[in-house]
Design brief:
Mean pLDDT: 84
Strand content: 15-25%
Largest sheet: 7 strands, antiparallel
Shape: elongated
Radius of gyration: 33 Å
Number of helices: 22
Helix content: 25-40%
Strand order of the largest sheet: 4-8-9-10-5-6-7
Low-confidence stretches: 1-12, 172-187
Amino acid sequence: MAAVLSNPGSNTSMSGLARALLQAGRLSALQADTLSKQAGTDKVQFIDALISSGIIDARSLANFCSETFGYPLLDFSLFNMALRPEGVIDNKLMQSQRVIALAKRGNKISIAISDPTNTAVLDQIKFQTELTVEPVIVEHTGLLKLIELFGQSAEQSLNNLTGDGLDIDFAIEEVAIQNDPGLADIDDAPVVKFLQKMLIDAINLGASDLHFEPFEKFYRIRFRVDGVLREIAQPPLAIKEKLASRIKVISKLDISEKRVPQDGRMKLVLSKTRSIDFRVSTLPTLFGEKIVMRILDGSQAQMGIEALGYDPDQKDTLMKAIQRPYGMVLVTGPTGSGKTVSLYTCLNILNQPGINIATAEDPAEINLPGVNQVNINDRAGLTFPVALKAFLRQDPDIIMVGEIRDLETADIAIKAAQTGHMVFSTLHTNDAPSTLTRLMNMGVAPFNIASSVILITAQRLTRRLCSCKVSTDIPNEVLLEAGFLADDLDGSWMPYKAVGCERCSGSGYKGRLGIYQIMPITEEIERVILSHGTALEIEAQAKLDGVRTLRQSGLIKVKLGLTSLEEILGCTNE
């Protein structure tokens, strides 16, 4: 089995590889004998001494072995190592005998090897696995690098990914770990450091979400940056349980419950003056618990309405609506479109000492001092309708309902808007006109909608072009088809396209901005509602009232050079 036998001075003691090279004329007898002696002195295998000598390079040797012994040759750069079968070959055997399991199909296993004359190890693998072994020739240097990587412990791998210099705290009392010795490994230093690094990196990149995803062959971590998911790391698969338990402990979740989804919350203390909240959601999957963490940065609500991207006329219309003494303002859009930030920006404007504001959310995402915030707890019986009924006995001026999901919640919110309260809420609809028909479909009477709703805003988030943007020439036909009017194409502006630089990590985009459809409920729209009008009829009347669609609002951002036409076409329908 050993590449070098006890007496390296004779031909009979030469490794099989040395004899094969000698017979093929690739080595002289003197070279073969000298290298064999050198290997014996250094206590290494013959192939190590051969590659170190420089007489034959790793690639040429791999080609020679493939041709001479008739085994296939593999280029590691073309092979996805994440798909290799783990645990088939013992780690100790892999490192001592320089072999890697590549694939397992039925009763056959493919083994990467650089010295095919080492038949003893192939027999040993066959005995251990009870499988037919199929050798595959690879370059020796590449094989050694991979073996070193795969042979690292999870702790070493995490230390390599993490580095040093992290000093942050989680704002919880981890009593469970202190009191239960069985949970001590959750506080494993490498896992703690790795999680801290992921959270800090996500904050520094401006990510909105972190995804921790376990799969059969690998573990993946992705960040959603500017609305697009990016793969950040593939830590060792072995840490998935410890990492999940660590996140669940600091989020005050049940670490023993892995069969059902759980929702929690945690706070990351960055300094004495800054902390960031995370909303945590766990989901049991085939290969472990997937965890998604939403970053809730309260500073976003303090940015001011100017930073959200409203056009001047849209901003004026919205400000007039929220300053009214009573009525309902609805914000609509898909998940992740910035509805919460828009609502909290409005609440922050209205948050004055003389105003009583109460919110019911599931859960409260942004902490706003001076606002009475209530977390919905369905298990305890604290539902949206129950919270709303309680609010009405608390002398409120402004009420915010996280989401109108059913008729009961809608009825109470509308009655509050009709009896002297300003009500804010959200719905999941595609645009402003369809929000009204959605309420009707829930069972809300048209006259109640017409008498309570004063404004609806639909919104989307689109990526903002980085400063590396360049102007581009787009044919007028394409611009007209996208929704521009002929009068817009007067040559006074140029569309821009994404390029990519170090600042934007090559994406061409940095940050996001909102595009909005602001639809005040005019007397004409009220008439359409009272006559049970459809979304199309409401949309037609809104157009007559001068309400821009989401696409039209987005095209204004294209004219201003804030985003690209591709982005607007990708996030709006027309």
